[in-house]
């Protein structure tokens, strides 16, 4: 059972660690690299999380909690452009606030087979966007394209430090990728 986050520091640690795990994978991410990324010693990091495995698990759990929250918010909406738009808005906001966790969640698309819960992640996205990928391959490809664009663009917005300007442009790009046109 995942533990409750103690502080805002835990959230920052999880996001930074998730970004490293997403970029390098679990095996190639050292405890020292994780500690350096958050400005702590290894002992200081282990004070927050007892092991690299515990940190990885906490990061995965948090990314899944965030994605399930988005699904719960869009589930009452009927399938279609309005639901797609709302899902993109919510996912973009999460990605702008927690880029590392989103990168880790999307790693299942970029590094297939590494995440034992990859099938669960795919089902969650299929539910969010109401799609059967076997029957709707063009739409499935558009969704992957939109989410990939979102991941890259939100990372760039965070690097630029200008989330407010980037957000509507990210949403327009992702919405267009799904084949929808602005009204």
From TrEMBL:
Reply yes or no: does the keyword Transferase apply: no
Domain of life where this protein originates: Bacteria
Gene3D superfamilies given in the database record: Tetracycline Repressor, domain 2
Indicate the residues that the entry says bind DNA.
30-49
List the InterPro entries hit by this protein, alphabetically: Homeodomain-like_sf, HTH-type_TetR-like_transc_reg, HTH_TetR
Q: Name one Pfam family in it.
A: TetR_N
| HTH tetR-type domain location | 7-67
PROSITE patterns the record matches: HTH_TETR_2 (PS50977)
Supply the PANTHER family for this chain: HTH-TYPE TRANSCRIPTIONAL REGULATOR RUTR, TRANSCRIPTIONAL REGULATORY PROTEIN
Query: What is the recorded name of this protein?
Result: HTH tetR-type domain-containing protein
Which species is listed as the source? Lentzea flava
